[in-house]
Fold this sequence. Notes:
Strand content: 5-15%
Mean pLDDT: 87
Number of domains: 3
Largest sheet: 8 strands, mixed
CATH class of the largest domain: Alpha Beta
Number of helices: 25
Strand order of the largest sheet: 4-3-2-1-5-6-7-8
Radius of gyration: 24 Å
Low-confidence stretches: 1-13, 156-161
Structural class: alpha/beta
Number of strands: 14
CATH architecture of the largest domain: 3-Layer(aba) Sandwich
Amino acid sequence: MNQFSAQMDQGFDIERERYFVDISGTLEHSKQNDFLTGIQRVVVTVVAQLAARLAPDQLYLSWCDKSTRSYKCVPYASVAQGAGILTAPALRSYFFQELSAKGPEALLRKYKDRPLKKKWHTMRLDLAAHMGRKRPFRRKGTTLESWQEMRDAEKLVRETPRAGRPFEQVCAPGDHLLQLDLAVQQWQMQILAEIGKMDVVKHLLIYDLIPLHAPQLVSHDTAWSFLAWLDEAVNHVDAFLAISEFSHEKFRTYLDKTERSGRITTLPLAQDRLPLPDKPQDRVEDRVGRQMTELYPLAKRLRKIGREETEIFCRPFVICVGTIEARKNIWRVAMAWKKLVEESEREGRGELPTLVFVGSASHMPQDFQQFMQGTGGCNGYIRIVSGPSDAFLELLYEHCLFSIQVSLAEGWGLPVGESLAYRRTALVGRGSSLPEVGGDLVEYCDPEEIDSIADAARRLLDADHRAALEARISQAKLRSWGDVADDLLRIVQIDKTWIAQRRPEQQLENQDT
């Protein structure tokens, strides 16, 4: 996977130019959500890696501001304040303090004119969090984990302007705008169209073109809105990045079909562990806490997990990570598991591990929902964990037998790479970008054949076969998020030289037309 890094290693120096990373879509999402999705996780992870490689005055967050219909920016260091990976609560705390739907201030809003009572209830909820009691938080429409994240996010708030500065007042010719996020709303597209006229080097990261080449896997109007966004976005950038060779090929096909040209470079994503936010350093553990950390780490990490989630660890289990939707092919996975359960019971081979679907259930397909209701979750052999925290997801990766991702279409396949980073192999569909992530470290199947999925799962249930793949994983050089950031900086420097050579030609072409 790191041949790309070797090919790009041409000794480019990072100049003192500035890098603006667009977070428009991530900010809009963080207004109403406590957890970031796949694309948004890529954005906050890459920008954190860039922060480790650039001086504080070189790295900015930028976004489309709806209230002023303008493009704003703020130094990354002002927002992160040394917290590592930015979370949705941290972003909301910095940019949207006035929102009433989220945060400790909102939960205790009725006490805003009674500071002593507000302080008392804050202390009461902090104590409940410390003791691992979930009920007080459920009563207030949140969770213990969200409360703790919100309290941690409060510490990021500093006496600095929250509105940001106009982009045009900060940027200079030769600076870089990295559009790693998706800004697909019409008002965002209009703002970015104006930014496209400025003399900065603009890159757009292409994740996938699934709405166009597999429209049956998305909602009915997604293809229309996606094409409208893409047709507009390509007009206002200088070069493109694609997260896999598969996405590169699909995007090149789009450019050919629309009779356009464009410079595309593949920037593969990572096979790395979950990027967890740094824990506050001022949280002091008592004696029991220190003993739990040193002697019984699993017991400590399960302490604040709900009973239903904790029960997962009572039996061996396999995980399928990702939004619970039709594109993830979850109905076929469930049917394959049902086949294995019935086969095991018929042949008296003992019980099968639990299959745990891990992800947002807001787009659950009807066929899968009917299956779960009609079979009682395959008699308890299939479970769902909706909206887990990254800390809990890490626990699942660490303790599962293997993971499953047999999606019908992907742009990369983060869960496959994450599974490998935790030294767990995976059952992977042989299609789209997934083989680029799994390489020879996983077990493949035909994602459109239930029998093929079941056969591959049966092979991975063999402990010796699984151990052989895990031994291969332990020797593999996996691609890190640091590798992604290094390659990104190299690519934009190479493209900057190419763009500078092209611009006089483009100006002549424009004069001729």
